[in-house]
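Hi there, hope your week has been kind to you so far. Do you reckon you could talk me through the fold, stretch by stretch? Thanks so much in advance, here it is.
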Amino acid sequence: MAKIHELASVLADQIAAGEVVERPASVVKELVENAVDAHSTQIDITVEEAGLQRISVVDDGDGIADEDTEMAFKRHATSKITDRRDLFRIKSLGFRGEALPSIASVADVTLTTSTGGVGTMIHNVGGIIQEHSAAEARKGTTVTVKDLFGNVPARLKYLKSPATELARITDIVNRLALSYPEIAFSLVHNGRELTRTAGRGDLQQVIAGIYGVQSARKMVAIKGDNSDFKVAGYVSLPELTRASRQYISILLNGRFIHNFQLSKALIAGYGSKLMVGRYPIAVLTITMDPLLVDVNVHPTKQEVRISQEPELMQLIQKTVFDRLSRENLIPDAYGELPQKKREDDHTDQLNMALNDASTKYPLESAATRVERAEPTPPIQTSQPRVSTPADKGPQPLQTPEEVPVEPVVVHQRSDFATPALKAFDEKYRQEQPAAPLGNSRSAEQPVASQPLTAPEPDPNVPRFPKLRYLGQVHGTYLLAEADEGLYLIDQHAAQERVNYEYYRQAIGEVSDDEQRLLVPIVLDYPTTDILDLNAHLETLASVGIRLESFGPNSFIVHEHPTWFKAGQEEDTIKEMVDWVLKDGKISVAAFREKTAIMMSCKRAIKANHHLDDQQARALLVKLATAENPFNCPHGRPVLVHFTDQDLQRLFKRIQDPHHSGDDWGE
C-alpha cells in the first residue's frame, strides 16, 4: 500500500487557513481587500463578539457572476492574474485565490452577490457548499462569516482577549481606510460604530477621523519623487509623538506593508528633532512601478521585497527632512498645560480646517541677533485692535453703553445702495462661516476637500524669533521676550544644540591638530572584541582616535582630538569604542553623529548654573544662528512659547462670553 497520498481538498484548505486566517482580523482583511479590488466606493464591516460570532462585509463593487460563484470557493481560483507575467505586475491587493476557500474551511460562510441583475446566494459550511440559489441583491457583494474556527476549536486557544482581537480588526480597517481615502469605510461592533470615513479622497480628513482632529492639525504634508519613486503623505510635527512605531503607516501602491528599513528612513528624516524612544505619527504613500516590488513573499502580503530600496530610503529621509526644516518647531506652552477640553475639540471631522499646522506655527527664516529688552505698552484686550501700540497709547475701556453703535436700517429697495449698507455687506461677505460643533456627521453636507500638500512657507518670514533677554529662573531657564510673546529657554538644551552643531562640523574636519598624551592610554579587550575592533580601525580614525596594537589583547592611544574635554579623555575614548563593538555595522557618518551628540552633552552647562547677563545673551545669539534651534540633539525642546493670548488666558483677561452687560470691566 502506498504511503504517499494526496490530501483531501477540505483538509488542504484548513492547512492553508493556518497561514491566511490566523485570527478574526485576518478574515476582515481578506474580505475587505476583495471588496477594494472589486472597485467598491463604500464598504461596511459589521462584527459581533470581536468577530468570533459574526463578521459581515458589504460592498457596492462589481459583484460576481452566477457562473463564477462556486469557482470562487476553490483554491487558487482568481480573476486577478492569468499568466506568469502578471505575477510581476500585480496591482491588486489579492491575487492567490486562497482567501474564500481558506475562510470557508474553518467557518460558516454565506455569500450574496449581484452584478446588477438577479443575484446569487451560496452557503458554504466547513468548505462544503450546502446551498446555491438565486437571491434578491443589489449590485455588489455581501459576505457573512459565522462561527469562526467552530470546526477547529483548537485554534481558539491561541486567540487573545476579545478586546485585543477587536483592536486588531480596527487597526486593519484603519490602515485600509488610510490606503484608500476615496472609499467610504464603516466599522460597527455589537451595534456600536467604531470607525467611519467619508470617502471624499481627502487623506488628512481620514487621519483626523482615526487619530483625532487635534493630531491631524499637528501634521504637515510631504511630497517628493525621483525617477523611480513618488512619496507623499503626512508626518507629525516633533511635538506630536508616540511610544512605538505602530503609528507609522507605510502604504506601497495602496498596500499597507511592514518594512523596518523604510520606517527607519522616515525617522532618520527627523534627525535630532525627536526625543529618544519617541516616534512620529506618519502616513507615507509610496507609488512605484509594480515591476520594482515583489509582493509574493509572505502569506498575508504585508512584507515585500523592493528593488532599489536604498534609493527609496534616501528619498524618504530627504523629503521628511526638507519639509520639517521649513517649520517653526517651537511648542505652544499654553497648549501643553493641563486644562479642560476646549470647544474646538468637538469640531466635526468632516468640516474642520485640517491643514492649518503651518498657520499655527508661523514659519520663519534664520534670525540674526538678540535685542535688549525694552518695556512694552500694555495690550487692551477688550477693544478691537485697529492700530498698533506704537501708533496710539492705551485706550480707556468703554462699557457697552458707551460704545457707539450705528444701526443699519433698510426701509425700501433703494436703501441697499447706501454706503453704510455696502460697508456692512463688505465686512461680513469675507467672514468665514464658523465650524459646526457637536457630533454631526452628515455625509450629504457639501464640504470642500483640503489639498493634500501643505502651503509653502513664506521665505520672507523669519523662522526664529528675535529674542530679548529678560532674566534667569533657578539657574536653569532663561526668560526672553519677542514680538510674538514670551519664551522660556532651557539653557542646557540650548547650549547642547549650539555645541552639537560645532562638534558635528569639527568632527567632520578631522585634521592633524591633536593633543599628545603625556601618559598613553592602554585599552584591554577580550580576543573577540580585538578581532571586531581590527575591522573598524578606520572608523575610529575618522574621528581622530588611532588605536595601535599593544600586545595580543590590548591597544594603546598616544593622542586624541583637541575637542575632547579635559579630564574625560579615557572615558570618552572607551565610550566611542563601545559604540563600535555594540553596532558592528555603524557607518562613519552615524559614528560621527553619535560622537557629536555625546560631546555636546558633556560640554553643555547644567541645571542650577547661574549665568550673568552677558553670558545669557551670548548663548541666545549663538542659538539664533543654529541650523536647528528648536531641539537639543536628543530631541527635547530648547524653548517654549507663550503667546500674548496664552498669557491673557492664564490671568483670566480673556473672559467667557457668557456674561451680562453688568459684568464689563477689569
Observations:
- Confidence is low (pLDDT under 50) at residues 340-405, 431-454, 659-666.
